[in-house]
Sequence to fold (205 residues):
Amino acid sequence: MREKLEVSLMPFPIVYAYYKNIELIRVRHTIHYLKQCLPPFLDVGCGSREISKAVGAVTLDVHRKHRPDVVASILCLPFRDGCFETVSAFEVIEHVENDELALQELKRVSRNRVVLSVPNALRYNLPLFPLKRRLVMSPDHKREYTLMEILQLISRVKMRTILFKGVGYCLPLPFSSFHIGLEIFPMLFPKFATYIYVECTKVKS
Fold:
């Protein structure tokens, strides 16, 4: 499969360090952007809680093993409307069947801002080359998104995108682990980034 071929182009230690570096960049950038938003925060799908700890967020996850403040599904958040100023969900909505309902729930419990990131279906692509979606997704992903697809999803739930960024860059060649390739390239070409980070607000009626 294509994903196995891409990974096989680099020795395992380089692959591990490469993707670990991308993950560190994702966490650092996410914390930087999230600190510019207003509290109180809710972090849905908190995982290791590294991001939520940095901003003092209430944590929610469907898995008890992550020891969140609240155990619940993103599809039915146990909070009243407008309970949090900022609601985040990083690498979450691609795991659920009904991503539109998930985003509606994030919007419902937020007073103003929803912040999320998703895996990019067009990672491993280069500008000026024919675009191809990944042939292999992570086994626990229901879908992955292009930049246009996630912006359209946000629009369908009647929210307005105020910021989007590309974070990290995957290119299956050893020289791609250079810092400039991982951090500078996705800023210039967000639709090719490993992750797409988006901030959106409710549309005032």
Summary: Confidence is low (pLDDT under 50) at residues 1-12, 174-178. The two ends are 48 Å apart (CA to CA).
